[in-house]
Amino acid sequence: MELTTTVGKVIECRAAVAWAVGEPLTIETVQVAVPLTGEVRIKIVASGVCHTDLFFQRGGDGPDVFPCILGHEGAGIVESVGPNVTSVEPGDHVIPVYTAQCYNCEFCKSTETNICNINGTFQLAGLMNDGTTRFTCRGQSIKHNMGCSTFSEYTVVYETNVCKINPGAPLEKIGLIGCGIGTGYGAVVNTAKVRAGSTVGIWGLAGVGLAVVMGAKKAGAARIIGIDINPSKENIGKKFGITDFINPDDYKIPIEEVIMDMTTGGLDYAFECCGISSCMKAAMNACKEGLSVLTIVGVADLTAEVSYNPIQLIYGRTIKGTYFGGWKSRDQIPKLVDAYLAKELMVDEFISHTMPIENINEAVELIEKGECLRSMVTF
């Protein structure tokens, strides 16, 4: 990458633009503006396609976020930086993340949460802090998404959302740590804190669910039960560490009853990775009395509600939610990359398809149909 030919200039590049709710993405030539104060412009090498991208594409956050550029599992190289950026410089290898870490807010100073409140309002609106965007296409402003927009060959993000990583990590793969792998793995080790010897149940064996499986195995769980209506997930799940597989379609009784029959009183830990309210309720019903923990990982429709009988909580069950697996992004994601390089964390195994950005809608279709773990789109 010839930095001197682009620094300080508007860049024209390819991007997959979501113009309206439910419409296929279209490959466009977009203009990417120069980064302003506290901003970083990144050349994206590759990006994963995540179920959360589908959530936004389907209008899960409303029509006001369109037109926009989706994508939040990317990795790339810093092309240029705006004023006052000190933690990264041109040429650095980085992962942009949707979870900021500013170091200064009350949340960043707390050891109890990884949520950061800087830039949050504008990020949800798809804008930068000055109320504008850095993307233009056909003379129209294009909004950002999740503070990342990695379905663009170049993107502009805040320094607070950039993790500098080991340059030895393969950029065409490592972006998955920035969402799916990081979220699932962290849900186990940071949020639920799974104990060795425990029994774990995981609803949904897509990318995030399999990262939960990986984390449960790492934590020393004695029994890891995968629950999915796709029968092909049984063999896939075993590669990551499940000991048992249940397809709810194979039973005429509720899945929680099946689990109660095959365990001693239920699960010690349950993880809901589907984003489906009925699965969240079933997972709670499958938890044993005493010390059990249900962790909600999947992103549900914003109108979804789940009801539980309070007596379930009084008898010692706990419900938790996890946001990006509880990781302090800028401090801890680079350490996960190092763990991958040390062969202590699976990443390659999550990638089932790799294709150019021009095939983005094929990648979306594959994940919609459950025919892939993760597709990587490359530039």
TrEMBL record:
InterPro entries: ADH-like_C (IPR013149), ADH-like_N (IPR013154), ADH_Zn_CS (IPR002328), GroES-like_sf (IPR011032), NAD(P)-bd_dom_sf (IPR036291). GO terms for molecular function: alcohol dehydrogenase (NAD+) activity; S-(hydroxymethyl)glutathione dehydrogenase [NAD(P)+] activity; zinc ion binding. It comes from the Eukaryota. GO terms for biological process: formaldehyde catabolic process. Its cofactor is Zn(2+). Keywords: Metal-binding, NAD, Oxidoreductase, Zinc. Residues 38-166 form the Alcohol dehydrogenase-like N-terminal domain. Pfam families: ADH_N, ADH_zinc_N. One of its GO terms (cellular component) is cytosol. Residues 207-338 form the Alcohol dehydrogenase-like C-terminal domain. The keyword Metal-binding applies. Belongs to the zinc-containing alcohol dehydrogenase family. This is S-(hydroxymethyl)glutathione dehydrogenase. It comes from Daphnia pulex.
